Amino acid sequence: MIKFPENFAWGAATSGPQSEGCFKKKHQNVFDYWYSIDPKAFYNGVGPDTASNFYNDYKSDLKLMREAGIKNLRTSIQWSRLIDDFEEATVNQDAVDFYNNVIDEMLKDGITPYINLCHFDMPIELQKKYGGFESKHVTDLYAKFADKCFELFGDRVHHWFTFNEPKVIIDGGYLYKFHYPLKVDGPLAVQVAYNINLASAKAIKKFHERFTDGKNKIGIILNLTPAYPASQNKDDLAAAHFANLWDDNMFLDPAILGYYPKDLVKILSDAGVLWDSTPEELDLIKHNTIDELGVNFYHPERVQAPQVSPKSLQDWMPDIYFDNYEMPGRVMNVDKGWEIYPKTLYDIAINIRDNYGNIDWFVSENGMGVSREERFIKDGVVQDDYRIKFIKDHLRELHKGIEAGSNCHGYFVWTGIDCWSWMNAYRNRYGLVRDDIHTQIKTIKKSGHWYRKLSDNNGFD
Ligand code: BGP
Fold first, then answer.
1. Which of 225, 299, 421 to mutate to test the pocket of ligand 1 (most atoms within 8 A of CB)?
2. Counting CB atoms within 10 angstroms of each CB, which of 1, 255, 324, 347 has the fewest?
């Protein structure tokens, strides 16, 4: 039996925009808007309007999740739902009632809320007027919104997060066109990355001004994708070094250590694309680091030296420093196209232990996306043994990391109930609970019944 430490937090993660549906929203976020102008960009033309109907079904959804062993739930508050006037951070009362009800219901059901404040869902007005996080003014508006959330819900929510996967905002919105505003602009991506770190630090400052007794914690959720080099030759090693700096350390280091990695600053400076910063801002980042870290882990990166000389490209893009490497023999999740390599979770645990002060952390997302899961329905239940295996394999590595002294306090599967996922809509299902999106009938999968035992026994055989 693999036993986890006492009080280990078993949970699941979702987000407001992916679960709630757009019911009674006064403002659109960038995805609501993008879908309204270009529904064909989304898998099967399915948008966020209904999602998994959490706005209406939250009571029964929470009960189902609790039945599936979920004792901690990470979701997000939508800026575009809660706030009425973005400059003043006045609130929309229906949204306040909704989030109050959700939090109260969670607590009633024995589910601890973990609340995140930005899950890719910039309000479209702010994107159009200011360019979203392209603008430093928006970092102030974001901090006001965050503070409003702390004021309204901080009496019952003790785990807060400023951002989910800021790297994906950069990749999707400013490099590879899978998030609105669909720009391709490397130097702007660098600036937006910096501005998000700044926004996070500003929100953390407000948080620590408001909560001083240490009962409430604030963190950030980062998708870590450690890069392994294709070989030990120096060019491949340099490629992996840059990939790690760009994909992970650009957010990890300021969030935990309070400063940027020197090597990254040098590379970006040499290329003439370093962000615009002031000494006051860097000081703010330095003094407003996180209390706990959420790690979303799905897959590592395999990289090799770039095959194209950087000099042959006109515009600066981060991928001039490395190419992906399709390592022979990798185990792949073919539906999603991601490598499955659980040992990376151990490597992450050790990296946090050794290089980040062994900060309090947890796995804030990990899971397996599979398409057309109706293939596996037998006797009305999705027989998702592949998901159980996936989770077990990752938990074994995580457990080794904890045994080696890494300070990990929980594991949150992505996700509780199948939810809507950006451009992929409902293509890949991740839930412990199946959602039939035509009927909104929700049924616990085999993995959900298994997860219940895992969570009740605090371990597995
Ligand atoms: C993470 C995001 C989640 C979720 C998940 C699965 O990066 O934080 O929001 O979308 O990935 O992604 P997908 O459904 O696109 O396979």
1. 421
2. 1
